[in-house]
Structure formats: C-alpha cells, structure tokens
Design a protein that fits this description.
Elements (H helix, E strand, L loop, with lengths): L9 H18 L6 H8 L3 H7 L3 H23 L6 H18 L1 H10 L5 H21 L3 H4 L8 H20 L8 H12 L21 H11 L11 H4 L11
Helix pairs in contact: 1-2, 1-4, 4-5, 4-7, 5-10, 6-9, 7-9, 9-10
Protein name: AcrR family transcriptional regulator
GO molecular function: DNA-binding transcription factor activity; transcription cis-regulatory region binding
Organism: Kutzneria buriramensis
C-alpha cells in the first residue's frame, strides 16, 4: 500500500510572512491578528496553522529570516581588502539600508519582542549571538591585525549592537530615516572596534568588567591586547560621535 503525503507549498509560508510584515507596517504587531495575516496573504486559517503554531511563532520566523538576510548582505558588502574605515562604513550602510527597507518591522523587532516572554528572550539572545559572530568574523583578519585591529571582544560587540539597535528604534519613533544615523553609527563603530578604542577588554579576561582609571593601566591592557593605547590628548570616543541638539541643556 502506498502512502501519499501532501506537501505544504513553501510559497504559502512566504506569503504569510510577507502579510505579517505588511500588517505590522499598517497597524503594528500588537494590533495584528491571525485573521489580518490570513486576509492579506489570501490564504486560510488552516494554511496558517499548517506553517505556524501562533502569531508569535510567525513573528519569530519573520524576524529571524529578516535578520539572517541582513547578516548575509552585510557580510557580502564588506571587502576585506578595503581600508578599515571603508569596511566599517560599508557594513553600517548595508545594515541601515536593510533596516530602512522595512522600518516598521525593524522597530517591532526591537520594541515588541520583549513582550513575547521566554520566546522573545530566546529570539533576542539568538540574534545577538549571530550578530556578534558576524562582527567577530569581519574583524578577525591578518590584514587588520597588522594595523592594530583585533578580533572584536564579545562584550564590545554587544555594547555596539545594543547601542545601534536603540538608536535605530529611537530614530523611527522620532519620524527619522535610519540612513540619517549613518555617520554617527560609522564613527561609533570605528571608535569601539578600532585600535585603542576599548583596549582594556579581552574575551575571557576576568579584568574585563573594570575599565582602567589611568594612562599607565590603559597602556598595560593595550599591550595585553596587542594594540596601541590612544596617547593622552588624542580624540576620545565621545568627540567622535555626531552632535545631537538634545545634548545641549535647554535645546
């Protein structure tokens, strides 16, 4: 006796994901229902539940696939033979271009995911690790080490990623375009990841939780990392970041 297995069309799944993205852009994730997704996808509830257990799992799939595509595009955009600042700029530009193509989904990823509880926490941690791995891979090259740039420590990568994500969310909430924060993002990334940026942090170093208080201590950790500490009087990280009028009291 032959058993006939009915395959679930893959294109239905993509239509459902696209429909969820469209509904998020129209009315937000929280106000979106499975009925909205089904209507926009022109499918049935039965088809929806053949692919996803709930609206939440559909959302997780949408965000995961969007971020995987973002990581793929960022990695492809960086030419390892290009000068270091150019590599950083291309990575940031591609990241912001991807996010700006679906700003509502980007904003929902950052703001709505925590409300999913354990499911959201696991999603956030998983995506953070994927982005950390991407940054560490892009900064782990012999040509960069020759210029004093080392593989990004995990803690530094998380600081950079967390800061950029919050800046993206705030920009969308303020009605801006994500491409408007390109210069600030590029300068922040170069300051954190470049030689002398945060020389006292090293993966697996028990001393990484405390930054040095003086130049001598900074130099010691710089030698430990194999990079040169920024000499006294040189430009610090805060002065590399573009000025925001809201930083001025009374502005």
């Amino acid at each position: 006796m032959t058993t006939v297995t009915t395959a679930i069309p893959v294109h239905h799944r993509q239509r459902l994901l696209d429909a969820l993205a469209a509904s998020i852009a129209d009315r937000g994730y929280r106000d979106t229902t499975v009925a909205d997704v089904v209507r926009l996808a022109k499918t049935s509830r039965r088809t929806f539940y053949e692919h996803f257990a709930s609206k939440e799992t559909c959302f997780v799939a949408l965000i995961t696939e969007a971020n995987d595509e973002m990581i793929r595009r960022i990695t492809a955009a960086v030419d390892p033979a290009a000068p270091w600042p150019t590599q950083v700029r291309r990575a940031v530009e591609e990241w912001l271009a991807c996010a700006d193509s679906q700003p509502a989904v980007t904003h929902s990823w950052i703001r709505d995911t925590p409300a999913l509880g354990v499911l959201g926490r696991d999603l956030q941690r998983d995506l953070m690790e994927r982005f950390v791995t991407m940054i560490q891979t892009l900064t782990d090259a012999e040509s960069l080490r020759a210029k004093g740039i080392v593989r990004a420590p995990r803690q530094v990568a998380i600081v950079l990623l967390g800061g950029l994500r919050e800046l993206m969310a705030a920009t969308v909430e303020d009605g801006g375009r994500l491409t408007d924060i390109t210069e600030t993002s590029v300068r922040a990334a170069i300051a954190l990841l470049g030689p002398g940026g945060v020389p006292w942090i090293k993966d697996g170093d028990s001393r990484a939780d405390a930054a040095p208080d003086d130049t001598a201590e900074t130099s010691k950790y710089a030698r430990y990392e194999g990079v040169s500490a920024a000499p006294p009087g040189t430009t610090s990280i805060p002065t590399l970041i573009a000025h925001d009028p809201r930083d001025t009291p009374g502005a």
